[in-house]
From TrEMBL:
Keywords: Transferase. The lineage of its organism: Archaea, Methanobacteriati, Thermoplasmatota, Thermoplasmata, Thermoplasmatales. It comes from the Archaea. GO terms for molecular function: transferase activity. This is Nucleotidyl transferase.
């Protein structure tokens, strides 16, 4: 299995940042770019050969990462002029004969990639697409006849959108070479695969941002204040003063983490799992005082706060 990143766009909505940098190299915190995070995800999946499908300022990506980065082997397929993502995929298919984990170059998410790959490989679909709940760009007004009864600030809607992450199996590569009326995979290959019943949907509630505007980038940068990514999730300092220190942990389903902050209170925000291998489960709103290291095993994606009162 190989990984691939679609990184050929102009990023016009992020100008002037993208006048001298491809969107993938925009920083989400000092020294840490969108592509840094994406390459980290591939390493967590155990995928070591990554193809960068670049275009606009693609040489900047090669300058930053070279052919080897953090234990990964990087290969570059650059378009000299924009020909669309269908061309990029055909170009990639000419180079490889493997299953492909493909992702858009502007996506940052906390989904459990190990579960995504496992789900994809154990179903009968030729391609699996990660889909995420659509969030309303506007606040919603609830009414009863002519009376306003409630407001909901940009709620999630009962619809799913393409989240820009796919596992494409080698046995459907022939679909890349059919004649289509269009240049992008979203309007060519994907509709054809859907008509053939060859696309499966992977759903998971997890942080997801597609960086398409300055507002999206601001959202992502706010998320990454005092945050450090880990193979199992992340840890983030969300509050500290002279008397109190609060860390937020996000632990992906199936992962186990040692929380080593003695004499602290653990408060579970959401998720389900076990503590110190006991038979009973914790769930959201469960709190526990710890005096030494505790093993947290997540059955579902879990967020918790560790609150330590300083001496």
């Amino acid at each position: 299995m190989i990984g691939a990143i679609l990184a050929g766009g102009y990023g016009k909505r992020l100008k002037p940042l993208t006048d001298k940098l491809p969107k993938s190299l925009v920083e989400i915190k000092p020294g840490y770019t969108i592509m840094d995070r994406q390459l980290f995800d591939f390493k967590v999946m155990g995928i070591s050969d990554i193809y960068i499908l670049s275009g606009h300022l693609g040489e900047k990506i090669e300058e930053r990462y070279g052919n080897h980065y953090n234990g990964l082997n990087l290969y570059y397929l650059k378009e000299e002029k924009p020909l669309g993502t269908l061309y990029s995929l055909r170009n990639l298919a000419n180079e490889v004969t493997d299953d492909i984990v493909l992702r858009n170059g502007d996506i940052v998410t906390d989904i459990n990639f190990k579960e995504f790959v496992n789900f994809s490989l154990h179903n009968n679909y030729g391609m699996t697409m990660f889909v995420t709940e659509m969030r309303s760009p506007y606040g919603i007004v609830d009414t009863l006849l002519d009376k306003v009864i409630n407001f909901k600030e940009k709620p999630y809607l009962n619809y799913y959108i393409n989240a820009g992450i796919y596992l494409i199996k080698e046995n459907i590569i022939d679909y890349f070479y059919k004649d289509y009326n269009g240049k992008d995979i979203e309007v060519t290959i994907f509709p054809e695969l859907a008509r053939q019943g060859l696309i499966g949907a992977y759903k998971e509630k997890a942080f997801w941002v597609g960086v398409d505007s300055e507002k999206d980038l601001e959202t992502l940068r706010l998320e990454y204040i005092n945050r450090e990514d880990r193979e199992w999730g992340y840890i983030k300092c969300i509050f500290e003063d002279d008397k109190k220190l609060v860390h937020e942990y996000f632990i992906k389903a199936g992962e186990t983490v040692n929380v080593s902050e003695p004499y602290a209170l653990i408060r579970f925000i959401d998720g389900r799992g076990t503590i110190n291998d006991r038979s009973e489960f914790y769930t959201s709103d469960y709190a526990l005082e710890i005096k030494s290291s505790s093993r947290i095993s997540a059955i579902e994606n879990t967020r918790l706060e560790v609150i330590k009162i300083k001496a």
